Amino acid sequence: MVAALHWLALPAAVACWSCQSRPALDFGAGLDVPYVQTSPSVVHAMLELAHVRPGETVIDLGCGDGRIVIAAAKDFHAHGIGYDLDPLRISEARANAAAAGVSSQTEFIQQDLFQAPIWKADVVSVFLLPPVMDRLLPRLRSELSPGTRIVSHSFLFHAWPPDKAIHPEGRTLYLWTMPAGGK
Ligand SMILES: C[S@@+](CC[C@H](N)C(=O)[O-])C[C@H]1O[C@@H](n2cnc3c(N)ncnc32)[C@H](O)[C@@H]1O
């Protein structure tokens, strides 16, 4: 039941945001997006879609319990950094990384995703709402290096069509690659 409510939360939030008045959404504690987990197999599909390679840095903006960052470290031998504003999520993520044996390859930092340093990323993963994606886009464009991949669970940028979309388990994942010489 709780899981079902979680899966309904993001579409409901999108529907709310899409209505004419576009009210500011309040998910509590300053969050711009509610906590909804990506399923483990979809996490893997995201990391495969982004072609994560050993030694690369994967940054998850709004990392929840750390599952994307932990899978990137454990299964793709990447270095992972997760940012989340919710301190409970950061505690969970650190405990989950320790249980998975990847504490030394991962960092979890309590920070607003709009302030988080992203320049190190080879891959940025997001599961965020459309208005948050659109607010983030100027930073991604100005701070990420050419060749950096962005992988998104479910949601698009209004002003930048994806290079690729796939549909694992009835979800939609999108991929963008930062182009060389200006975006
Ligand atoms: C939809 S969940 C995604 C969790 C995880 N990335 C996953 O795919 O399983 C979004 C996450 O973003 C976090 N969040 C919301 N607003 C944020 C903000 N302004 N800065 C950092 N994290 C935020 C929430 O606490 C939540 O954990």
Label this structure with key terms.
183 residues, alpha/beta, Rossmann fold, seven-stranded mixed beta sheet, globular, binds S-adenosylmethionine
Hetero ligands = S-adenosylmethionine
Could you state the CATH homologous superfamily? Vaccinia Virus protein VP39
Instruction: Please give the alpha-carbon distance between the first and last residues.
Output: 43 Å
Q: So how many helices?
A: 5
CATH arch. level architecture: 3-Layer(aba) Sandwich
The count of β-strands is 7
The biggest beta sheet reads: 7 strands, mixed
Q: Please state roughly what percent of the residues sit in beta strands, choosing from under 5%, 5-15%, 15-25%, 25-35%, 35-45% or over 45%.
A: 15-25%
- What structural class should be given to the helix and strand makeup? alpha/beta
Number of domains: 1
* Helix and strand element order: HHEHEHEEHEEE
Which stretches are poorly predicted, pLDDT < 50 over at least 5 residues? Answer: 1-8, 15-23
Helix percent band: 25-40%
CATH topology: Rossmann fold
Gyration radius, in Å? 15 Å
Quick one: overall form? Answer: globular
Side-by-side strand order of the widest sheet: 3-2-1-4-5-7-6
What is the mean predicted local confidence, pLDDT?
Answer: 89
Assign the CATH class: Alpha Beta
List the helices and strands and how they pair.
Elements: H1 2-18, H2 40-49, E1 57-61, H3 67-76, E2 79-84, H4 87-100, E3 106-110, E4 123-126, H5 130-143, E5 149-153, E6 164-166, E7 173-177
Parallel strand pairs: 1-2, 1-4, 2-3, 4-5
Antiparallel strand pairs: 5-7, 6-7
Helix pairs in contact: 2-3
S-adenosylmethionine is lined by residues 31-33, 35-38, 60, 62-64, 67-68, 83-86, 89, 112-113, 127, 153.
